[in-house]
Design goal:
It is a single chain. By secondary structure, this protein is mainly alpha-helical. The protein is about 75% helix and about 5% strand. It has 16 helices and three strands. A three-stranded antiparallel beta sheet has the order 2-1-3, with helices on one face. β1 and β2 form a beta hairpin. The chain is flat and about 90 Å long.
Length: about 425
């Protein structure tokens, strides 16, 4: 193969980095004699020393940065951090800061080691010649297909800063929606868990103490009290296997949920049928569908490809599969609103607004309006559900804890009446 052919074959590929950058911790003194400390990415200690002298400092101790005790991962990378990253990158690029420098600035300001290392890896790939969208492929969990496709479209159109800003806004909306759903789920679950823990403490530690007092009465216990005493005896004698069975059930169901698509589909279908909560989940899925599709379509992604991206971003398996069927119908020539109508899972109002958007050539605007409407509906529904759940929770906790208190003091009351 000729040299020209070899050059042509390797054109477009970034040159390999022979000596990747490492992290160093340095100590130096400035011109006033003040001691300064910091961190720097460089190829070697000599590079760090030379850079410090260039900045007018007298280098002292320089050593490689130690790794965390439990590896370099540290905390996981949260969705809020990805949103922050997107917003900051958009701001700096809109201000004219080069991408490599922007990534360098962001990497040095992070407290989460895993997040900082991810940004540094992106910086190294981009400085080595890779496109930003290609560098993101190394982190598919943090940057999904939607994120990478939109970044790629922004690079092609020369509006990457605008796309990143739009992505940051999108992620903020999605996280706010997720927060509402978590509030709807975790608030009653958390209160019920506290009630269960208090009940177990009473059964294991408190009722046995009262049992000894009851025995000194020499009288037969009321049936209501005897019920709780028997429950306490059973719990004390078998708490170890009850705890083991509960943990095994939770662990087993978690593994089954991760491994079985059919089980996930069943859980999702049942969740959507739960009164009140199911309606919230329906509205949340429709909102995410509309906002994600609007965002990708507005960025210039063809409708079929946009639907392919959306068919995994609704937060519901039932809706993901419905969107996949819509995509298949649109791919063979159906209009979007007709394909959605055939599925039967989307409300008529959503289908009608999509149809109006298609006819007027403003599909993305209509979808954004649908998303905003359903996001507001989710907010209202969660607030209403929380208000309705509070008296129900009070009744349940009162029955659990109050019933035990009454059972414990009932023999004492009867004794007092006899005296």
């Amino acid at each position: 193969m000729s040299a020209t052919a070899k050059t042509a074959k390797t054109a477009g590929k970034p040159a390999p980095r022979e000596n990747p950058l490492s992290e160093f911790v340095w100590v130096a003194t400035d011109k006033r004699g003040k001691t300064l400390k910091g961190e720097m990415s460089a190829k070697s200690v000599n590079f760090v020393r030379a850079e410090l002298r260039k900045q007018g400092m007298n280098p002292g101790a320089i050593k490689p940065k130690g790794k965390p005790l439990f590896g370099s991962s540290g905390k996981t990378i949260s969705g809020a951090e990805i949103t922050f990253f997107s917003r900051q990158m958009a701001t700096m690029m809109a201000s004219g800061v080069p991408m490599v420098q922007a990534l360098e600035i962001l990497s040095n300001g992070q407290k989460n080691p895993r997040f900082a290392n991810m940004i540094k890896a992106l910086r190294d790939d981009v400085s080595g010649g890779s496109a930003f969208s290609e560098a993101l492929k190394a982190f598919p969990i943090q940057f999904n297909d939607l994120y990478r496709n939109l970044v790629k479209a922004g690079e092609g159109a020369g509006v990457l800063d605008t796309v990143l800003d739009t992505l940051a806004t999108y992620l903020e909306r999605i996280q706010a929606l997720k927060g509402k759903i978590k509030k709807a789920l975790f608030y009653p679950a958390g209160v019920m868990a506290v009630g269960l823990i208090v009940s177990l403490i009473l059964l294991i530690y408190v009722i046995p103490q009262f049992k000894e007092t009851f025995a000194s009465f020499g009288a037969e216990l009321p049936a209501f009290t005897q019920l709780y005493v028997s429950a306490s005896e059973f719990t004390v004698a078998n708490w170890w296997w009850m705890l083991g069975a509960s943990l095994a059930a939770v662990f087993g169901l978690s593994l089954l949920y991760k491994a079985s698509r059919d089980f996930q589909r069943t859980v999702d279908r049942l969740a959507l049928k739960i009164p009140v909560l199911g309606q919230v989940l329906h509205m949340s899925a429709i909102s995410r569908f509309a906002r994600t599709l609007a965002l990708t379509f507005k960025a210039g992604v063809p409708l079929v490809e946009a639907l392919d991206t959306v068919a995994g971003a609704t937060g519901s398996i039932m809706y993901d599969e419905a969107v996949a069927k819509v995509r298949d119908d649109v791919a063979v020539g159906y209009s979007l609103n007709l394909a959605m109508k055939q599925i039967g899972i989307f409300p008529p109002m959503v289908v009608q607004m999509v149809g109006i958007g298609e006819e007027s050539g403003a599909l993305d605007s209509m979808l954004f309006k649908v998303a905003e409407f359903y996001e507001q509906e989710v907010n209202n529904a969660v607030d209403a559900m929380t208000s309705l759940m509070e008296p129900f929770i009070i009744v349940v906790l009162g029955t659990l804890v109050g019933g035990m208190v009454v059972a414990m003091y009932l023999p004492i009351f009867k004794l007092g009446m006899a005296v």
